[in-house]
């Protein structure tokens, strides 16, 4: 099987298109293996935003980088990503070399290789699970 990118639907929002739809508001480590992101989601109405909380659980690798840097992807995967038909800004790498390489090391068959593209950055994570929920700004 060859690696491919799968669009991920966000609960309550579906597929989010266009990297300028998302901005990083806050990023923090809740513990050594849990990363929390707060992202603003542009609604298409001037100055109207909704907020998402994305929590990566069981994090093995995590990287935030400029969109022109390949991050955790191999050169072959990065080229494939650039040429892919993925429409969403939230993707999962199916049949990822990174997952294959780390399953043996960590003994976990449920690793997920996820990519989120925001306005300024890409966020890439190799983790056991991801939790996505609405976030209320006080």
Q: Briefly, what is this?
A:
Helices cover 14% and strands 43% of the residues.
Count of discrete alpha- or pi-helical segments spanning 4 or more residues: 2
The tally of strands reads 9
Oligomer: single chain
Q: In angstroms, what is the radius of gyration?
A: 15 Å
Uncertain segments: none
Shape annotation: globular
Instruction: List SSEs in N-to-C order.
Output: EEEEEHEHEEE
Q: What class do helices, strands and sheet pairing give?
A: mainly beta
User: In which order are the strands of the major sheet placed?
Assistant: 1-6-7-8-5
Task: Report mean pLDDT, rounded to a whole number.
Answer: 83
Helical content, roughly? Answer: 10-25%
How much of the sequence lies in strands comes to 35-45%
Largest sheet: 5 strands, antiparallel
Give a description of the structure.
This protein is mainly beta. It contains two helices and nine strands, in the order E-E-E-E-E-H-E-H-E-E-E. It has helices spanning 75-83, 97-106, and strands at 4-7, 22-31, 34-42, 49-57, 61-65, 90-94, 112-117, 122-127, 129-134. A five-stranded antiparallel β-sheet has the order 1-6-7-8-5, with helices on one face. It has a four-stranded antiparallel β-sheet with strand order 2-3-4-9, with no helix packed on it. A hairpin with a 6-residue loop joins strand 3 (34-42) and strand 4.
Observed structural traits:
mainly beta, globular, 4-stranded antiparallel beta sheet, 9 strands, 138 residues, 2 helices
Write the layout of secondary structure elements.
Elements: E1 4-7, E2 22-31, E3 34-42, E4 49-57, E5 61-65, H1 75-83, E6 90-94, H2 97-106, E7 112-117, E8 122-127, E9 129-134
Antiparallel strand pairs: 1-6, 2-3, 3-4, 4-9, 5-8, 6-7, 7-8
